[in-house]
Amino acid sequence: MHHQKHSGIKKRVGDESVFKMPRIALLGEKHWSYLQRRYHMSPRELQVAKLVCQGFRNNDISKILHITLGTVKTHIRNIYRRVQVESKISMLLRFVADTREFYDQYDATAPIPVADLAKPAKVIPAS
After folding, report:
1. Is 54 in contact with 48 (CB distance < 8 Å)?
2. What share of the chain is helix, strand, coil (3-state, %, to 5)?
3. What pTM was estimated for this model as a whole?
4. What's the pLDDT at 116?
């Protein structure tokens, strides 16, 4: 069986999790520190949230953190409850929006531009 090393984990070629993770992070350590305080996350929940937001699957997270898949799912469920979301993408979007609000209050430069979902862009009809 052919294996490929990825982020410290050996994966079988053909396994759908072999896809490369993006090398960009939307949230830095200051953001995570703020989010941990805002949502009262434990250090382990913070680790899980970071890995989820980096695109890792639950199975990969369990291997990286040396915890069971059930424990990963429990941490994710607890984070969802606190953040009041129902999916990983919703969690990431909430975290990005929250850090954007934080920077709007305390710093003139936000981490990344975020589209305002409450106000859809005007579409000008083609002639």
Report:
1. no
2. 55, 5, 40
3. 0.66
4. 45
